[in-house]
Hints:
This protein has helices at about 5-10, 50-60, 75-80, 100-105, 125-130, 155-165, 175-180, 215-225, 230-240, 245-265, 285-290, 305-315, 345-350, 365-375, and strands spanning about 65-70, 90-95, 115-120, 135-140, 165-170, 190, 205-210, 270-275, 295-300, 320, 330, 355-360. The chain is of the alpha/beta class.
Amino acid sequence: MGFSTDAIHAGQKPDLETGAVMTPIYMTSTYVQEEIGVHKGYEYGRTHNLTRAALEQNIAALEKGKYGIAFASGLAAIQALMNLVKAGDHVVVSNNVYGGTYRLMELIIKDYGIDFSWVDAMDLDNIKNAVKDNTKIVYIETPTNPMLNLTDINAVSSYCKEKGLISIVDNTFMSPYFQRPLELGADVVIHSSTKYLNGHSDVIGGMVVTSDDKIYERLKYIQNAAGAVPSPFDCWLTLRATKTLAVRMKQHNENAMEIAKYLESASFVEKVIYPGLENHPQHELAKTQMTGFGGMVSVDFGNEEKARNFAKRVKVFTLAESLGGVESLVCHPASMTHASVPKADREAMGLTDSLIRLSVGIEDIEDLIEDIKQAIS
Ligand code: P1T
């Protein structure tokens, strides 16, 4: 089936009792047992929920994976993935990831005795050089938040297979519409479904997809045992949202491309970062592993005051954390999403105090460009 056909139908069939075409929201924490141990296969809401199961199957189909496992947030999904390793193990991570991912790994999970190496994953040799005897996972985000650096998913996955390591890709920025890491050889995909998958800025959620039976069984066990499950209502909203993922992503991509080109031509800004621009250092890789370039554009204004003024002056763009919603957002990563990353580490990767991140929405492009024009005038 094509992407949109799967997006609209996968995981969903008319309700057996009523024939309702849309998956019901099973708002229940528990299920009746006729006698002790005799039931319909559903015992407790943390363990089983049919709205959640529909969403899990839906996203698994979009990522071309066998299994989906839903979590209460993107970070809850990452926390669950870090339960695949134990004290004494080592994980290699791309040095530019969402600030909360860095905070979770470096400031919380590290205390459990798990060691992390942060590497520039644009160069596979850096990953190879960081791998040790106790390495179990290579975790990459591509494109990265907010520098939009790319990692060659196929090259990293092949290397991980050869070494018996689990390769995990955070695919939040592209969504499965533009990039499918499992098809490129990765073992696991993780999403903050808060972003493009849900796309309407009204749900916090996380999703993991894999085709590996063993990883799935372990994660399914962790999902229930650790319990960071999403509410049935949030699952339903996300399931409703993936039906329009393709049309939304096309428009995000089209608008972001126009904005990136416009900003590039504006003398006011120092640097525009967008994988769709030919001057992006990994534009060729972008064209091979992605089928579009997404809705995220980062802009370095050269000095912090200009960046702050821009964020203050825009009117259609809203100054807020998060991304991937239908509405355009502007964010100052150094003080907002990446404040927990030490300043020296931030600056080493180009995440300066003068950098602004745009999550380009699907409003009319003329209004977005006009808004940017009036803000920089
Ligand atoms: O916010 P949550 O659903 O827990 O997802 C965490 C997360 C994971 N991975 C990536 C690539 C992310 O961007 C995020 C969350 N990011 C933001 C809130 C942000 O504004 O960048």
